[in-house]
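Researcher: Please translate sequence to structure tokens.
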Amino acid sequence: RSHSSQTLAYTEKQSPMLRALRRPALLAARATVRRTTPALRCLSATDGSTSQPKERRFEAETASLLNIVSNALYTEREVFLRELLSNASDALEKLRQKRVANETVAEGDDELKISISVDKDKKQLVIEDSGVGMRENELAENLGTIALSGSRRFAAEAQKNEQDASAIIGKFGVGFYSAFMVASKVTVESKSYSDAINAVWSSADGAESYTLQEGGSKTTRGTRVVLDLKEDAEEYLQPARLREVVQKYSSFVSFPIEIDGELANTTGAVWAQDPREVDEKTYEAFYRATFKGAWDAPTYTLHFRADAPLDIKCVLFMPSFHTEKGGLGRLEPSVGLYSRKVLIENPCSDIAPEWCRFVKGVVDSEDLPLSISREKSQDKRLLAKIQDVVVRKLLRFLQDQAKRDRDKYLKWYQEFNMFLKEGACHDASRRTEVAKLLYFDSSKDGGLTSLDEYVSRDSSDDEKIYYLHAPTRELALASPYYEQFKQNKRECLFVYNAIDDFVMSNIREHNGRQIVTAEAADFGTSDEKEEEKEDKAPSGNALSTSDADALKAWLLATLPDRLESVEATDKLVSSPAVVVDAESGAMRRMMAMVAQQADGGALPPLPPQKLRLNVSHPVVVALAKASSVDEVRATAAAHQLLDNAIVAAGLMDDPRTMLPRLNKLLELALKVESVPVETEPLSRTEALEKGAARKEASEAMDK
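Model: Translation complete:
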């Protein structure tokens, strides 16, 4: 073979891998395809022809094809550096395996590393490695043939020989040509590990030809890629910009990357290590170095490996705080997708659901099918399976942590419960598992309790889980709806946020038990069947059955538009009345807020309510008497009694609607009969005595 300077045309045959190009790129390529022979005629089985079809191969206009690969394949221009560094990493990995196999390796830098340097005067960017290098014919084969991947071929051979090829990154044979996105000319100088003769490959402006010759300034083993940068790509002459791209895409490759002599990838890929060999300090250093704004120490770290449906290496961090509660905007997802330690997509929305946006981490899969640009996975269904594995592991991990150290989990839960509640509302497939992580305040000895703990303590046959919404624990304990729980020694969960009502209505049941609001709970009434009703002597100050029936009938007749039914109950102690089976007050307030934001509209008025009366309460007893002797006063009191019950249920949309009725009650309460005017005027002494008495009374009240 002659080693003299020569010019070779791009006449290599097109690889089938190009079929995977994006549709716009493929259409452009098809427009340039020309056949070497006339189109073959379709023959039927009966046309009498005896000729056999001849197999022909497609040809392509290489200039157009190269333009597609270098300019239409990638969404971000900066990925050219990722692609060239991946090629350099593969070259180093191949050399490492040659050494392991005890093959003879030419002299060179003993340290396997990648060096990046810039020449601002010449406007050149140089990427150099000390890997296997390439001979002249290998340069022609690997760089002169688009979509031919030497790394893929090397990996296939390694697998045949039962060698580990997991660290090989390249697959498609097109990444090198991304250099033409930023370079007007690309020069590759290389010296093979097995050949003493070095060679130079060069191509300018993506032309249809390249030059190949012996010699060059590369005298040691490895490859040097020199990019003559375009005017609009001079930002890549700045070391800071190069370091930014390296740390974004290639920070975790297996070999050191130096930029002008300074190490750029200082953080190792901890997810690729054995979890048993990584200590907390290493995790914390990785966490702070990798994720933006992560200056805290993570509360929890989950590091695992899985082999189904793909080989997965994953590390997830649960921070100690978040910024959403401070009004600093919605958190962005922070779980990145990697393949063989090289960034593919960050964040990857398909790896973790939206409610898991508080989690920071990395998921790496060596077998993930990627697009040619290596910016997306080609199999959404496979990503969904990976997400299922990752989220299932996360939920089980948090459940275990809650059992292992309850206090630590509850401290973390106070900070992040809003995300778990969001998951319970929106993630139907995982709702049951997420519900196990939720904790609520309880009437049982105070403190937070889980739904599982509630069920374990309840020995009744009711088969329900009850909860009560109130602004505070004190108001929950004072609520009329809690009185029957207290009287029956039943546990009730207390929730204080409007979102909790939405959570409970979405969970609906837990461990076979229906979740029910306390407003809808009714452990029984004192009403008896019609055939058993008889006049009974009142117990203490309680109304008799007949008096209670008369009051119920009067209330329904007096407030027909506001009441659906009225019944007596013995479940109230200190409250005169409650409404039951009503819609959730917190939910109604949330709906009102949504309606106001949407179109400024208002909610429909409350429907008629179901009222339960405490027939032993003095207010109810007095109302029963007043209903027959003072219709005006009794009617005003009846309205206010219902208003109070609606307020207690949290259903009063606008308390100002009560003001006219309250004013009427004040008027009636302060109204007194007129008294006769004294005919005899007071003497001076009597007037002074009355004045002194008023003064003493006023001073006493002030004290």
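Researcher: Any highlights?
Model: The CA atoms of residues 414 and 439 lie 9 Å apart.
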